[in-house]
Structure formats: structure tokens, C-alpha cells
Amino acid sequence: MVISWRIIILLSLLSLVLVCCSNPYSSLSKHDFEFTSEDNEEAELIALCLSGELVAPDNLYDLVLMDLENIRTAFGNKFEPIKSIRFRPPWVAGCLLVGFDSSTAEMVANGEYHAWDELNMEYQVTEIDTTSIRNNWGILYFKDKLNPRHLLGLYSGLPGIRYAEPNMWFGGSSNVYPGKTMRGISYLFSEGSGDFFPGSIHRRYWYFVVELNRIKFIGYWFPDEHPVNPPWWREAERNIDQFRLW
Questions:
Q1: pLDDT tens across 86-108, in order?
Q2: Phi-psi bin for 52: left (phi > 0), alpha (psi -120 to 50), beta?
Q3: Average of pLDDT values for 40-66?
Q4: What pLDDT, in 10s, does the model give residues 174-184?
């Protein structure tokens, strides 16, 4: 059977149109948008947590930045709160809480402890907070947003140091809970109000999945109005569970 070259060209063009339609953001990059410093920081922190690496990988950072921009652009007018709900990790990035034995605490207070000098130089410690040194602990602040989980073993093994741990945030109001899927990332926006320690009394949720550059709005849930969990809640709740393990 002979196929006309006109038909071949037509089919090729049709295929191209279908590909473009199924991937509306494929030709866009972060350079096509004007992001705020808050946008950039949020994407960096999410990439840091999702990757589990010392620093946020650039490719994951770019992906998250675009995902959130597209979600808020497409659905922000309909669901106003998701424009202002921002991600906050469970710990302070680039910060490490360190506990000492009493003699080491005294050396730190006097600037005479040098066992950590090499590590402090390598990971660029910019400040050592000794405000609580009388209680035998202090806080290290690093130049970059480093994942504190990567630093625990390095510092806890030094002489005179009893423990090293992330500097945790307390309380829990609004947040974005991200999670990896087989082909992308899911985002659970959680709005909290009526705060009490350590969480919120009232909650509202919006759940999105972004795979292959396609945004899927899965659903929203206001527990005060509808006490029964929606069918997708078990999947979305995994993002909160994972958040607690970071």
C-alpha cells in the first residue's frame, strides 16, 4: 500500500500537537518566571528534604519550583489559601544542636575547643551560639542550607561531644507536605488554625499530584465539615508520616 507523503506529514504534525498538549510545561523553565526569594527558598528546602542529601540537588529544586508555581497559578484563584501556605521542614536547615560534657563545654566557652575546627571549616560554620553553654549545649550555624541529618554522625563522634541533633521546629500550623510518587511528586497543602502546642485544632487540606508535568487535583477535605476521611486521604497522609521521619 502506498501512503501519500502528505498524509505522513499530517500524521507527524498531529503527533507533535498531541505531545505538546499532554505536556504543557515542557517548553518552560524556571527562567521563564519571576520567582521571589521565598519561592526559591521553599523549593530548595523541599528538594533538600525529599532527596535526603546534604544539599538540595539542582534538578529536583528546579522541578519543585515549577510544580509549585504551576499549582498556584492554575488553582490559586479557586483555592486561595494555597497561595500563602508555605513549606517549612521539621528542622532548621544549616543548623545543628550540639551537647557537651561539662569540661568540653567550658573549653568551648573559652574558645579552647579545637577538635571540630576541621569540620567547621569544611562545612563553613559561620556562628557558634554559646548562649546555653552553662547547660552544656550550643548551636552551630552553617553558611548554606545543609541537611542536619548528614552532620549528626560527624559531630557526635568528636571527643567531649555527647550528642548532636537537628534544631527542631515546634508547633504545627499551615504547611506543605511533599512526597515522591512513581513518576513525580505529590503535594498536600495543609491549613491550620486555632493553634495549640504542638499542632492546630482546625485543618483544611488540598491534595495535588504532579507527574510527567501534568497537574492532577485529587481533592480537598475539611474535616470540621466532613468528618469521614476521603478515599484519597490514606495516600496523602503518607506525606505527613514521611515528614515526621525527616
A1: 999 999 999 999 999 999 999 99
A2: left
A3: 97
A4: 999 999 999 99
Q: Give every strand in the sheet of 125-129, ordered side by side.
A: 125-129, 137-142, 91-100, 161-168
Omega cis (within 30) before 89? no
Beta-carbon-side half-sphere exposure of residue 170 (alpha carbons within 13 Å): 3
Grid coordinates of 213: 508535568
Alpha helices in 99-232 (DSSP H): 102-109, 117-122, 152-156
pTM equals 0.83
**Where residue 35 falls among pLDDT bands split at 50, 70, 90?**
confident
Start-end ranges of CATH 3.30.70 in the chain? 91-168
State how far the Cα of 221 lies from the Cα of 232, in Å rounded to an integer: 10
Beta carbons of 178 and 185 less than 8 angstroms apart: yes
What would be the CATH architecture of the domain defined by 91-168? 2-Layer Sandwich (3.30)
Which grid coordinates are listed for 116?
571540630
- Going from the C-alpha of 103 to that of each of 106, 115, 117, 135, the distances in angstroms are 5, 14, 18, 12
Helix (H) or strand (E) holding 94: strand 91-100
- Give the number of other CB atoms < 10 A from CB of residue 102: 10
